[in-house]
Amino acid sequence: MKNHSSNNEIKKQISHIALIMDGNGRWASSRGLPRFKGHAQGLKTLRKLLRDLKDSKLEYLTLFTFSIDNWKRPKEETSKLMQLLRKFISNDLSELHSNNVRIRVIGSRREIPKDIVDLINGAELLTVNNTGLYLQIAFNYSGRQEIINATKKIAIASSKGEIDPNKINNTIFESNLYSAGVPDPDLIIRTGSEKRISNFLLWQLSYSEVYFEECLWPDFDKNKLDIAISDYKSRSRRFGNVLNEYR
Ligand code: IPE
Ligand code: IPE
Ligand code: MG
């Protein structure tokens, strides 16, 4: 049996959780409702969870809210999803700000309507000095695109002689990702029973613990989050190392 109290084992503190909030469409379809009703319910679930996390010690929470690949969906659905982000920022920003939450939105701003870009910039600016939960919202996000974007930035800097290509390392690469300055997730949770990463945080998840939750996102809550965290705490993170007792 593994001895989880090994000195050699990296302590399983949890500072950053990433969430793939999947299953809204199925939640609605199973009730005979249009898909957007599932997204609206999903937003309610998120709002409740953020309230329940108000006094938690969690430092970083990253949410997958809209993938670049989601533009493949019917226009009716993508418009509703844009509308929900507007609603989230307009309705919830002041409460999040008063709870000392810092907001940062990661992803491409290119395809997003201008008024949403303005809302995002406003939310980031308002909360930039907050010291509570760091809420990273992946919106219009693609893990591959983030990596290509970082590569382009580094290539341009090296063509100008600002970076020596031979000195490119993890630190330089990470500082060019959208998530620069935010530690890698300790735990990634995906709701909705699918067992895949779907182009989320491809660089950052290298050593994250993965947890698949069967329930659909609208049915997720703080209790289920606590169960995932307990499961995380029972795991042995080794980062490629070997525990002392197995040496
Ligand atoms: C996740 O729920 C929310 C977004 C992708 C925006 P889905 O809309 O993917 O719901 P399912 O997976 O189809 O049930
Ligand atoms: C991932 O879910 C994106 C979000 C939760 C925002 P998808 O529903 O888009 O992923 P796939 O299509 O099942 O892989
Ligand atoms: Mg889905």
- Under the CATH scheme, which class? Alpha Beta
Strand content: 5-15%
**Number of H/I helices:** 7
In round numbers, the mean pLDDT is 95
CATH superfamily descriptor: Decaprenyl diphosphate synthase-like
Which hetero ligands occur in this complex? 3-methylbut-3-enyl trihydrogen diphosphate, magnesium ion
- For the terminal residues, how far apart are their CA atoms? 15 Å
The CATH architecture term is 3-Layer(aba) Sandwich
Count of β-strands: 6
Number of domains: 1
Taking the sheet with the most strands, its summary is:
6 strands, parallel
Query: What would you call the structural class?
Result: alpha/beta
Explain this structure to me?
The protein has 7 helices and 6 strands, in the order βααβαβαβααββα. It has 247 residues and is α/β, with parallel strands linked by helices. It has one domain: Undecaprenyl pyrophosphate synthetase, CATH 3.40.1180. Strands 3-4-2-1-5-6 form a 6-stranded parallel β-sheet, sandwiched between helices. Helix 2 (35-52) packs parallel to helix 3 and helix 3 (75-98) runs parallel beside helix 4. It is globular, with a radius of gyration of 19 Å. The two termini are 15 Å apart. One 3-methylbut-3-enyl trihydrogen diphosphate binds at residues 21-26, 66, 70, 81, 192.
